[in-house]
Amino acid sequence: MSQLLRVHNFVVSSDGYGAGEGQSLESPFGHADPGQLMSWAFGTASWPNRTEPGGSLGLEDHLVREFHRNVGAEIMGRNKFGPQRGPWVDHEWVGWWGDEPPFHTPVFVMTHHLRPSFSLSDTTFHFVDDEPAAVLQQARTAAHGKDVRLGGGAATVRAFLDADLVDTLHVAVAPVELGRGSRLWTSPDELYDRYEVDVVPRPDGFTHYLFWR
Amino acid sequence: MSQLLRVHNFVVSSDGYGAGEGQSLESPFGHADPGQLMSWAFGTASWPNRTEPGGSLGLEDHLVREFHRNVGAEIMGRNKFGPQRGPWVDHEWVGWWGDEPPFHTPVFVMTHHLRPSFSLSDTTFHFVDDEPAAVLQQARTAAHGKDVRLGGGAATVRAFLDADLVDTLHVAVAPVELGRGSRLWTSPDELYDRYEVDVVPRPDGFTHYLFWR
């Protein structure tokens, strides 16, 4: 298989939610605390939002580092791109990430409400209203032979899993329950019949699941 | 720190030996069984000697893959290069690796018995009779800004540790005792005062130690 569709550094709660309920501009993860969900990665040397040099070079750093390796395009759902719902009122919103988005590739945002493509630094956002398989085909072409990363959220990853299009997944299960929100799964063992899996429990209470096929 | 000196995929027995006693052409690891020592890596997709496609994409594959990332030169001891001792009888021996050595960079072989440099495919072997710090300086220059990998054997890694020149180490401790041979350490905790460490026990009985500072 030459071009994989990969999920990396995707965090869910112990009950399988990738984000809480009630996403808004102020709360991109709804009632979930993103600091708690992403705490496994904050201390690593490769964490892109580090403000100081240094950081851990342990196992978590190996996992964080995979995020960019050989990735030529990203696919994300509209709720990862922004908190708006329905038709765009204007095109001022350009994502959560400021002038230097951490993608550095074409990004395909899945939405029923199209708008023109635009670029920020070396990231270009395209808006597509299509089925997962068709979006993946566009992303593969844009990736010029490299892999495609599936960025989330949970509903988007779920849609590609249901279409059996995902080749590898790294999911970190956080030691916290959310109870409601956007759900990836009831339990990781839902994927055991379709994927090989490596389960890596860690001292910080997170468990990393590496799936491949 | 811009150019790290890194140890990767270095295996020792539970009692700290990197190779057994009695290295020879037929037994590069002496009385140790290299198949047993390296078994943790054989099943991974990134294992360089794979003859079939596929392989695991779990945690071990992440570790194996680090071997080449951003490496611009390698340093090794003469006993990693070959089984001969003392002056070279001739220069026919060009290493264990055939026409395509897995290094793809300049390699600095530490020996008191110099011989001319030579190239095989995209690997060039240089022979140097110098102290660790001086050899590292040469390797850093040859690496053109990339990191330098310290390839072993145990005595060579030990020499660079004693000179406090090693920045990161990945050591896999195998579930096997060797009793004698070339020793890296009595116990990994000898390094705990100088390094941060992440200890990762695995279902196959190996424990991976990731050291950094």
Report on this structure.
The termini of chain A are close together. In chain A, the strands form two sheets. Chain A has a nine-stranded mixed β-sheet. The mean pLDDT of chain A is about 95. The first copy, chain A, is an alpha/beta fold. Chain A has one domain: 3-Layer(aba) Sandwich (Dihydrofolate Reductase, subunit A). Chain A has helices at about 35, 40, 60-65, 80, 130-140, 155-160, and strands at about 5-10, 15-20, 70-75, 105-110, 120, 125-130, 145-150, 170-175, 180-185, 195-200, 205-210. Helix content of chain A is about 20%, strand content about 25%. Chains A and B meet through helix 3, strand 10 and strand 11 of A and helix 3, strand 10 and strand 11 of B.
The CATH architecture assignment of chain A turns out to be 3-Layer(aba) Sandwich
Measured as a percent range, the helix fraction of chain A is 10-25%
| CATH H level, superfamily name of chain A | Dihydrofolate Reductase, subunit A
Tell me the greatest interface.
Answer: A-B, 15 and 15 residues
The overall pLDDT of chain A, averaged over residues, is 95
Distance separating the two termini of chain A: 11 Å
| Topology-level CATH name of chain A | Dihydrofolate Reductase, subunit A
Pfam family, one (chains A, B): RibD_C
Domain Bacterial bifunctional deaminase-reductase C-terminal (chains A, B): 9-185
Protein name (chains A, B): Dihydrofolate reductase family protein
